[in-house]
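Supplementary Methods S3. Input chains for the assembly prediction are listed below.
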Amino acid sequence: MNAELRFLTGEQLRLATAVLDVIIPPDGERPGAGGAGGAERLDAILAERPDVRRPVLDALRAIDIAAGPCGFLAHDPAARPDVLRTVEAAQPEAFTALVTQTYNAHYTCPKVRRALGFTPENPQPEGYTQARPFDPALLEGVRTRNRTWRRV
Amino acid sequence: MSRLVPESSEMPQDPDATDVLIIGAGASGAAVAWSLARAGIGVTCLEQGGWLDRTDYPHELPDWEMHRQTDFSNDPNVRGRPEDYPLNNADTPIAPLMFNAVGGSTIHWAGHFPRFRPSDFRVRTLDGVADDWPIVYEDLEPFYEENDLNVGVAGLNGDPANPPRGPRPLPPVALDPAAYVFIDGLEKLGWHWWPADGALLTAPYGDGRHVCNRCGPCDLGCPNGAMSSAHVTYWPKALDLGARLVTHARVREITVDARGRASGAVYYDRDGVARHQAARAVVMACNGVGTPRLLLNSASALFPEGLANSSGYVGRNLMFHPIGFVSGEFEEDLVGYQGPLGVLLQCQEFYETDLSRGFVRGCQMQLHHDFGPLTTALGGFTAHRVPWGADHHRVLRKRLGRTLSITAMTEDLPELHNRVTLDDTLTDSHGIPAPKISYTLSDNTRRAIDFVVARARELLETCGAHEVRELPCVPESGWHLMGTARMGNDPETSVVDRWGRAHDVPNLFVVDASLFVTGAPVNPTSTIQALALRTASWIGAHHREIAA
Ligand SMILES: Cc1cc2nc3c(=O)[nH]c(=O)nc-3n(C[C@H](O)[C@H](O)[C@H](O)COP(=O)(O)OP(=O)(O)OC[C@H]3O[C@@H](n4cnc5c(N)ncnc54)[C@H](O)[C@@H]3O)c2cc1C
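Predicted structure tokens for the full assembly:
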């Protein structure tokens, strides 16, 4: 798996997987963002977007440190959201960047989109079903109201 | 500074002088190119961007929604493509948005296509503010009609809020669950509504274009050619008629001859080589930021304050349409991400001045669809993110497909201090000075936003929304760039005359929204293109005199 990493180290990937699972946790049968491959997608995003690397790495590092001397991976899973909340309060910009990239990673994952009832790509060229033609009878009330534009 | 005689010795000259040189291939430049080419006048257009091919759009990529944040952002500062120029936006709460390509900003637009009303041209007379236009609605009417036929407008006649007009060539956008919800609320409140005029195809119209298939993200461009963007409406016809379009050609300055007449333009070609294109007349179509930027960059010994700027009005009176976004969440699944993003219904109940509302002039509401999963998670129109953590899925499910939104748009008024100038240090990739935007939101506009945002909330609540979120005064909303080279009869207080012809330079014209005197509370492009066609027809009728 690590051989395919483009930006993160294996260690950072494991940390990111656990953090992403707190940001978007499992939903019933469905895995959270980490388990659904979000960390690998995050790696790809960071490889392609130098502009977002720094805050995301800062947030991940801050989370690992805030979890205590043994680090985030050793932290009690039930208490992990509290760690993120601490970092969110202390470093809001970096944390927001991490959340943004987690959402980017998760909601561009084809499997996740299918599970939500969407195609991965925008539905082209099929599009969505056409709706009903407009029914001008609906406008009867509006038509009978007075002219509202001003003559000049 | 531009030279009286272009750098002919060291600079490659394009072979022939063109009759008319158009700068910018967006909505206005395209309309002018078509009109002049049809009249048999030689046209060359220089455009800094290129053509977008179907495969250039992000729609077919799994991460298409993410491209809103990168190479398909509306904001050139975020996009940073080679053909974009940067803007210094440090001194404005609203960022100008645009796209630079053949088709210009209509690559990105939503195609909401209202006309201005007659009162919009008589603001001073009726309401005692700003200025009247030197033309009236009736002057533009035939060109509105011509433009509607050329671009393919969907809509319905009989709206009591607007003057009677010729029939739209296409039926209005279809009724979907979102429309029924809005109509229910509007009828309960007794407010005006009407199917929005849309510059998009609801039925077959024109070669090589397809009917809108309701895919949703119009703001990322339309790979089907359903949206009436200028690269699929006017440009194919203009090229067939013999117009010449040079892409990846960034104009540095308009040159002038010893008599102070425009003689052409210096531009950088796709290889970065500076060239000169000679012309008998020049038409500026670079939008409300690009045009003043280029005029100011064309300062010379004859025009030390910038070309056509003896009034000092070039770059001044910048107007946006400051807006608020309001979104409502509904119980039922309205598949709110389906259908054209910005064209569904409009409400013009609050369009004309009513001083009891606490402000002068008016506002309108654009009632429309919403976004797919990623953009919904990131907060949608109102930037209220779906929370991270345990509640994430519940909130996402509550919003996705169940959200409808309103663009609550106000009329800005011209103020001299709102302006485009040249930045001292910032430049584009060719070293050409970039624009600096200085803009403050007036108290009147702020009150108008508060009012219309409150009405939008009232409407969504009446429609049955159980939660309403709002973002008053949206920072990323400078889609409409107006007023920076305005028209008028007085050369001391305007840049161009009633035909768009520069007071100072008789063969120089402006056809984009720079020439707007006031902005109305509705989207401008129908009016921009009507004005462009009107100016083109005047150039067509006078081109020998102009070239003399
Ligand atoms: C996201 C978005 C949504 C919108 N939605 C709507 C809507 O629903 N309804 C509506 O009416 N309007 C809408 N608009 C606005 C609409 O797109 C513009 O009003 C319209 O495109 C303006 O036309 P224009 O010709 O003045 O400028 P543009 O279309 O911006 O074209 C200007 C062209 O000039 C070129 N140019 C600039 N400087 C130079 C130079 N130095 N050298 C060479 N070329 C140059 C640019 O590359 C560009 O292609 C929207 C805009 C955006 C960004």
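The mean pLDDT of chain A is 94. Residues 10-126 of chain A form one domain.
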